[in-house]
Amino acid sequence: MARRCSRTAVAVAALALVVTGCGETSSGGSGEKGEKGMAIAFDIGGQGDQSFNDAAYAGLEKARAEFGYKGTAVEPKDGESDADKVQRLKQLAKQGYDPVVGIGFIYANATKEAAEAYPDTTFGIVDDSTVKADNVAPLVFNEEQGSYLAGVAAAKASKSKTVGFVGGVDVPLIHKFEAGFAQGVKDTDPKVKVVTQYLTETAEEGGFSSPDKGKAAAEAQIEKGADVIYQAAGLSGQGVVEAAAKAKKWAIGVDSDQYKQKALASYKDYILTSATKDVGGAVYALAKSVEDGKPLSGEQRFSLKEGGVGVTDSNPKFGEIPGLKDAVEKAKKDIVDGKVKVATTP
Predict the structure, then answer these.
(1) How far is CA 177 from CA 66, 244, 264, in A?
(2) Checking phi first, is residue 175 left (phi over 0); if not, alpha (psi -120 to 50) or beta?
(3) In whole angstroms, what separates CA 213 from the centre of its chain?
(4) For the chain, what is the radius of gyration of the CA atoms?
(5) Nearest-5° angle of CA 265, CA 284, CA 273?
(6) Do residues 4 and 60 lie in contact, with contact meaning Cβ atoms separated by under 8 Å?
(7) Average pLDDT value for residue range 271-300
(8) What own/partner pairs with CB < 8 Å and gap ≥ 24 does 324-332 have?
(9) Which end of the chain is more exposed for a tag (fewer CB within 10 A), N or C?
């Protein structure tokens, strides 16, 4: 393929990923179709959230290393509009990046418009399945299934019989996390109470990007007796983890294995587990499909059965709490076998 012949030159010319703080890529002009490889546009919170965005970036990094192309990642701007997102995706496609991936449901409208304008470019969007086009691959997950396992773990670990859930923004996607978690708790121990709090009504209010809000919510739940708190709040979740650790309570991470995140290293002893979803794997899979000349199209769903979601056992304490690991393994088998149906709404 002609695009493969150009890889070496592109790789030599682009030794490092460059991202600008204003929300635009640092490279200008236009490029020959396919030379530059994948581009991702970060969700609110951006790179360094130790969660959702960083998981996506890991997929980009894997693609760059394997395919030897440039690739790029672009940060969102504060207070940006849909028009800003449209312009970002269109500009990336115009510059020759392929595929172009919007990280998060906030890119739904932008992906639809950009895909119409650039029908020969493959677009991906994570966490949204509403965009229907031949050149769009929605990358979606059964978050409720991983969250169910987190609920099982929380119920087994709780001594106070009260656990907490902190959601970043009160939207259907995060409702899936809450629903699965609450069901996992109740199915494991009906006597355990779940205390729930959402940080904001809209993403623009900072629900996914405000560690201080997460910290305050966790502290309030701890005051109510919660000794295990599960957060699905992006960057805000770092505040939840901090509050739980300082109170010597358990935190449950989300999206990435937060026990292994450097920014949370001082709190890792109190990160019991993380409910993960393989955003990086999904992003990489889309990049590989384009590289192979067979771009993915239509909804691509990643469930517990395929390893698209799950929970981690990196913290040694996960295996030391009586009955916890066995309960999680049984729940996993029951979900995969269809014996347990996990709700997607609270």
Answers:
(1) 33, 19, 22
(2) alpha
(3) 19
(4) 20
(5) 30
(6) no
(7) 96
(8) 324/152, 324/153, 324/156, 324/157, 327/152, 327/153, 327/156, 327/188, 328/149, 328/152, 328/153, 328/156, 331/148, 331/149, 331/152, 331/184, 331/187, 331/188, 332/149, 332/304
(9) N
Alpha carbons within 13 angstroms on the beta-carbon side of residue 149 total: 31
DSSP state of 247: T
Q: d(Cα 317, Cα 291) in Å, to the nearest integer?
A: 41
Phi-psi region of 124 (alpha: psi -120 to 50; beta: other; left: phi over 0): beta
CB neighbours of residue 26 within 10 Å? 11
What angle, rounded to 10 degrees, do the helices at 172-188 and 143-157 form? Answer: 40
Beta strands 123-126; 271-277: pairing state:
unpaired
Confidence of residue 23 (pLDDT cuts 50, 70, 90): very low
Would you call 6 exposed, middle or buried from its count of C-beta atoms within 10 A (0-12, 13-18, 19+)?
Answer: middle
| pLDDT tens-digit map of 30-78 | 344 446 899 999 988 788 877 888 889 999 999 999 999 999 999 988 7
pTM, two decimal places: 0.85
> What does the pLDDT look like over 100-159, one tens digit per residue?
999 999 999 999 999 999 999 999 999 999 999 999 999 999 999 999 999 999 999 999
Model confidence at 21: pLDDT above 50:
no
| Averaged pLDDT of the chain | 89
Q: Return left, alpha or beta for 206; rule: phi > 0 is left, psi -120 to 50 is alpha, else beta.
A: left
- Residue 162's SS3 state is strand
